[in-house]
Amino acid sequence: MRISTTVFMTDQTIGPVRLARALEERGFAGLYLPEHTHIPVSRESPYPGGVLPPECGRMLNPFVALAQAAAVTERLGLGTNITLVAQHDPIDLAKQIATLDHLSGGRLTLGIGYGWNREEAEDHGVDWARRRALVRESMAVMRALWADEPTAYEGELRGVRASEAYPKPVRAPRRRKSGPPLYGPRTLIGAPAGPAGFARIAAYADGWMPVGGSGLGTSLPALRAAWADAGRDPDDLYVALSAVEPSAGKLAHYRESGVDEVILQLPPAGEREVMGVLDAYARHLT
């Protein structure tokens, strides 16, 4: 089981270069960064965790920060948890993702999700009620651009002409029972457990990225059943738990449950505090 980290990285916290080097030196598997473009002051959307962390309004762009991390490491995995796909132009986002994956030698994992902040999404022109469909069609646009040959996609909400688009992501395409192969980096959907969410994961992703690991005894069998119903290869399913506070017993339970990766939560703090927590977490690597 891989052990990685995540942090709300801002203009006031440890930066990507120092953190990435420290992670690779200690043997951690990866660094994941979340995304918010802005947090409207006038907001009715409740934050899922209760009180909105002030760091949400100060986050660095994850792709820029991860590019810095890639430049100073050789093995460290790079990921988003999560990219708010509906808030991006998918053609431009496809280029950013493919470029980072190409320059890092295929080290990128793309965590995607639907968001919780309606006001933020609406500032991007997102119809909140249709955001899940928008994410699905945006992923289809990006995969058309990542395909080996010029490929068109025309959906109800998004589309792209058959185009020359380079670079290509490094990961090999994954086959499905129906539909074209899934091109691009490993893509994990961050969503609560449930039949609808698991059906989406099986339809157009490579796995699941929930927050924490509660209820795995029932959720993982349900996810695997949805995966099998979609005709997906069982070996292709990937499960990464995000924002975990570790303990030896907890990590052992996740490993025994068949979890592929655990992403430990670091504090949104300066170098000294983060390094202290990182050294404490490193004890779980052996």
Automatic annotation (TrEMBL):
Residues 17-243 form the Luciferase-like domain. InterPro entries: Diverse_substr_monoxygenases, Lucif-like_OxRdtase_Rv2161c, Luciferase-like_dom, Luciferase-like_sf. SUPFAM superfamilies: Bacterial luciferase-like (SSF51679). The keyword Transmembrane does not apply. Its EC number is 1.-.-.-. One of its GO terms (molecular function) is oxidoreductase activity. It is an enzyme of class 1 (oxidoreductase). The keyword Oxidoreductase applies. It holds the Pfam family Bac_luciferase. Keywords: Oxidoreductase. This is LLM class F420-dependent oxidoreductase. It comes from Streptomyces monticola.
